[in-house]
Amino acid sequence: MKYSWRNVPRYIRYVLAQTVCLFLLMVLFRLIFYFFFIKTTITDPAIITKAWYLGLKFDLRLTLILIVPIGALAVIFRDRFFTRPVFRKISFTYFFIVYLLLTLVYILDLGHYDYLGLRLDPSIMRFLATGERMTNAQMVWQSYPVIRGTLAILVFMYLVYRLQRLLFNRFAQQPGRQLRNWPFTAYVVSMVLLIAAGIYGNVAYFPLRWSQAMFAKDNGVSSLALNPVLYFVSNLSVQSDTYDIAKTKQYYPYIAKYLGVDSTNAEQLNFVRTVPGVDKPRLNVILVMLESTGAAVTSMYNNPMQATPNMQRLAKNGVLFEDFFVPSISTARTVYSVTTGLPDIARTKTASRHPKMVDQRVIMDQFKGYQKYYMLGGNTNWANIRAVFTNNVDSIQIFEEGYYKSPKADVWGVSDYDLITEASAIFKKANDNKQPFVAFLQLADNHPPYTTTAGAGDFKKLTEKDIDMKLFKQSGFVSIDQFNALRYEDYNVGHLISMAEKDGYLDNTIFMMFGDHNCILNPYSFTPLPEYDMATGGVRVTCFMYSPKHLAPQRISEPGSLLDIYPTVAKMVGMPFKNYTMGTDLFDSTRTEKYAFITYMRNQQGYYAIYGKRYLYEINNNGKSTALYDLQGDPLKDVQLQQPDTARYMDNLTRGFYESTRYLMFNNKKN
């Protein structure tokens, strides 16, 4: 065996050795992902083995693609590859850059998956948007071991440098071997065929494709089967955001009937609904965005850890929306969606970062006679959120970092406790002056780096010794820090209501509290539906209203959405308005059907869907694959063949939601 190996020309053996080293690097990161990051409910060894098999084939494909340049040089120059110094420099430089970039991308991918539960894709470029780089860099600095990580990378790259020297010198010191044309041709052809076969990756008519990794309908298994670099590159071909006027008109009749527009007109694409006002005292409205607060983590939805007693108390004495959704997972998308009443379904950037999508006719602007506030502990240049408000809401007052007396707690600005304390003083002043107000209060501390303060001195973090770890593992929480951050948010919700009572505006204010999306969780199964497996758990959030003098305790089971918030509160306070949005009144008892438009990722593929009390209908982002699920039967079984009429109707309505939203994002501009 040793003799036959030595007979192979050294430049080909060098290429093979480098191939093995690169492949082992990818296997190392795959092992790290499997043992420390993967989130899946699948335990079947056959499925996991298949995911590993596919993943290793993707790794081999990337390895062979990267080895081609050096392989080409080696076979062209043969033994001169080791005798000319220029090739030594080329080899060292090339492999150093390749190892460095691979290491950085894999680490970034692991962080992306840990944060969002998804493999790396081009949407990460949104974090490099102008004016936001510093904020995002601070978040990374405060949330992750940047210094230790950098040192580890430096040490690793030094070891790579030593390995490259060792490999090159070892082969350079071996005797060269002159081959005749036919043996040389045989070696080259064999190497080319093996590399081509490895890149092709399949013993089939079609080459290995990333869609093969989606065989298990489980995001964790699919992630294990993918190579993050190849997956990222495959998503670079995303088309630019636009809309299709023909499809908008095609599906307009379905959505117009559902919304109940004033005057149906498929040519002018009219979406307006006029809501008359009611003459009554104007109540204040405070919208409270609860960062990363999905339904599954809160006490109201049976989480075993019961981390939110204040929210539970308010929901019990107010109105709890049992099935409430955000259109997509992203804080910026949530702020845009609740304000504009349109799902943020921008494909590459969030809509707030898209100049053509920012100009909108919004209901908040129609609160005549109201003071309008947007309050954030940090800076509103984040995600270009400032433009969503200043461009669309006349005379809005923005309170952000630089205004507050309290010091910054972390990258997201002042702590939630301090934000609420200072915001309450503003609310008190307006209320004392008999000036009604509508406010968007955005909390942020339930987010990495999970900064918590002592509040009034009575907030205490819990440790593993203080809790039942068996229940903790069932709850879905991924860390004690995450659990404590939610507890801290709940603490601050209680603080807000206490301040409202103390400062005298509780009795004439409607509080609407909602999560912006769910946090990343480990698999859980305590919810009535298997929402973790359905992938709807990420967009199902907590939502409740509280106004002890004006709202009787109530639980609403019909689906609701962020899009419905402003139409609901505007009608509650008697404000006349025109609704240009996709939202409807959450309390409208005359509606015969109610759906929430949502988007989600399952099995590393994107879907948009409408979620009703009985059915969920989804359409793959490719626009072709569809499914109908009976939520009162088997919610994981596609029943569209058994119920073709229901599927046909919901397909038209789902596409109507999608195409109408795409159209309105560009064509709902103020006159």
UniProtKB/TrEMBL annotation:
Keywords: Cell membrane, Membrane, Transmembrane, Transmembrane helix. It is a multi-pass membrane protein. This is Sulfatase-like hydrolase/transferase. It is found in: Cell membrane. Residues 284-574 form the Sulfatase N-terminal domain. It comes from Chitinophaga defluvii. Gene3D superfamilies: Alkaline Phosphatase, subunit A (3.40.720.10). PANTHER family: LIPOTEICHOIC ACID SYNTHASE, PHOSPHOGLYCEROL TRANSFERASE I. The keyword Transmembrane applies. It comes from the Bacteria. The chain crosses the membrane at residues 12-38, 58-78, 90-108, 146-163, 184-208.
